[in-house]
């Protein structure tokens, strides 16, 4: 049931984080999501719930004026709250930021809600469930039950400190904690005042230290925390799907293919570039004696190496081309010409890092790369894990986002006769350049 508008809580939005895992040029809370910055959606979700009458946003120090103009005023967030929105400078940690915001919270309401700026899809039901439970218990958090099997691990010294399973945990006793979290204002203030040097990952942990109960209420799998480019893509897909469903409901019929495409485009912030962009790359180099063989940034023991102006890392060159292509930034020869002495013997991993920097400066994030190495020999299988780690590190993504396959040509062509090695790569990048993204906020970090 939709709650009536009867504000009974203040809210704190923790929006001062750097968002380093996102790997973006702008801070993740300012990235566009369906035509609005992520943090604006998070604040609007609280304000539109009807439970919140005031919002205090803790933002990166120095961003206060721009945040007020480009977020609060631009999206009329103050008009959605009985007592408006206040912007304060955050601290060096999430805990410090919440404490600063807490000092600015009005005493008008008994309850205060704390919410992550990176959870823009929180629903009205979750906000009200947390608020009502906090009224009864003093503190409450939204949570969901893990769907995966969860195990605790330990280092095994006999195996060189490799991780081994210590215990399989009972999922029925485990919860994945979300925000919003809600507290009686007096309880949260006391918890922060008595925190001392204790560093908590959420505000409930501070209340737990006081020996007070924290109620757990149902959260939502939709209420994801946007931490990585994949999370952003999932959130966009959820919004696009809901936009299409609303269109179908209004028309009473299935949305035609063209209309569905327009709906997806609108949900991604207008008639601009698509959120996910693919790119492909190809390279081939001749094998010659007396050269190092470098593939994916890893030295491969072999009696021949690849001939080229740089270190001739054919796999990394294909990856670079796929990334540049996905972002519409030309090709590797355009940026690193083999006629330029500056690139003689250059490490292709350095060139890859620079290419990723170009993408970030243009508003793109690397999502994933799939590649194929084509060679009769050497066998690359034993080196694939190292190559994945090396490429992932240069692209600032998880190794799970990088795939490498080895193929032969069954003795056919220059690869089959051992004269050359070739590589193919396909990259997916996330376009963060939504038209609503505030360009003045959040520099590189």
Short description:
The protein is of the alpha/beta class and 445 residues long. It contains 13 helices and 18 strands.
What does this structure look like?
- Helix 5 crosses helix 6 and helix 9 (314-326) packs parallel to helix 11.
- The chain has helices spanning 38-47, 64-73, 94-104, 124-137, 185-193, 203-209, 229-251, 257-267, 314-326, 332-335, 348-362, 384-395, 413-416, and strands at residues 9-14, 32-33, 36-37, 52-59, 85-89, 111-116, 139-144, 151-156, 162-168, 176-184, 215-218, 276-289, 294-295, 298-299, 304-306, 364-374, 402-407, 420-431.
- It folds into three domains: 9-147 and 174-227, Spore Coat Polysaccharide Biosynthesis Protein SpsA, Chain A; 238-272, no CATH class; 276-431, 2-C-methyl-D-erythritol 2,4-cyclodiphosphate synthase (60s Ribosomal Protein L30, Chain: A, 2-Layer Sandwich).
- Helices cover 32% and strands 25% of the residues.
- The two termini are 43 Å apart.
- It has 445 residues and is an alpha/beta fold.
- The strands form five sheets. It has a seven-stranded mixed beta sheet with strand order 5-4-1-6-10-7-11, sandwiched between helices. It has a five-stranded mixed beta sheet with strand order 15-12-18-16-17. It has a two-stranded antiparallel sheet with strand order 2-3.
- Helix 12 links the parallel strand 16 and strand 17.
- It contains 13 helices and 18 strands.
């Amino acid at each position: 049931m939709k709650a009536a508008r009867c504000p009974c809580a203040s809210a704190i939005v923790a929006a001062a984080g750097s968002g380093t895992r996102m790997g973006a040029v702008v801070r993740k809370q300012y990235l566009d999501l369906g035509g609005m910055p992520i943090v604006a959606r998070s604040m609007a979700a609280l304000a539109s719930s009807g439970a919140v009458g005031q919002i205090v946003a803790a933002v990166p120090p120095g961003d206060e004026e721009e945040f007020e103009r480009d977020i609060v005023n631009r999206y009329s967030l103050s008009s959605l709250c009985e007592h408006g929105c206040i912007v304060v400078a955050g601290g060096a940690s999430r805990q410090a930021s919440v404490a600063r915001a807490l000092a600015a919270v009005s005493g008008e309401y008994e309850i205060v809600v704390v919410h992550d700026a990176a959870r823009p899809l929180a629903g009205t039901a979750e906000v009200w469930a947390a608020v009502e439970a906090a009224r009864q218990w003093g503190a409450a958090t939204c949570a969901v039950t893990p769907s995966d099997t969860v195990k605790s691990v330990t280092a095994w010294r006999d195996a060189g400190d490799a991780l081994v399973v210590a215990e399989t945990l009972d999922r029925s006793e485990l919860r994945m904690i979300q925000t919003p979290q809600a507290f009686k204002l007096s309880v949260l203030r006391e918890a922060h005042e008595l925190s001392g040097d204790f560093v908590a990952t959420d505000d409930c942990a501070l209340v737990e230290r006081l020996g007070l109960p924290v109620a757990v209420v149902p959260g939502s799998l939709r209420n994801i925390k946007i931490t990585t480019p994949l999370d952003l893509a999932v959130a966009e897909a959820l919004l696009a799907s809901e936009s299409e469903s609303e269109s179908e409901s209004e028309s009473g019929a299935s949305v035609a293919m063209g209309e569905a495409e327009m709906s997806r485009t609108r949900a991604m912030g207008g008639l601009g570039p698509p959120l996910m962009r693919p790119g492909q790359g190809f390279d081939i180099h001749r094998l010659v004696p007396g050269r190092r063989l470098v593939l994916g940034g890893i030295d491969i023991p072999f009696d021949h190496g690849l001939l080229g102006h740089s270190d001739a890392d054919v796999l990394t060159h294909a990856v670079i081309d796929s990334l540049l292509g996905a972002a519409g930034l030309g090709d590797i020869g355009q940026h690193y010409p083999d006629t330029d002495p500056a690139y003689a013997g250059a490490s292709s991993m350095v060139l890859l890092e620079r290419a990723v920097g170009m993408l970030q400066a243009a508003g793109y994030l690397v999502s994933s790369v799939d590649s194929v190495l084509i060679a009769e020999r050497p066998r690359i299988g034993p080196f694939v894990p190292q190559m994945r780690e090396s490429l992932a590190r240069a692209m600032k993504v998880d190794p799970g986002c990088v795939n490498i396959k080895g193929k032969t040509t069954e003795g056919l062509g220059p690869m089959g006769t051992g004269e050359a090695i070739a590589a193919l790569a396909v990259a997916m990048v996330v376009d963060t350049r939504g038209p609503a993204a505030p360009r003045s906020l959040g520099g590189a970090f």
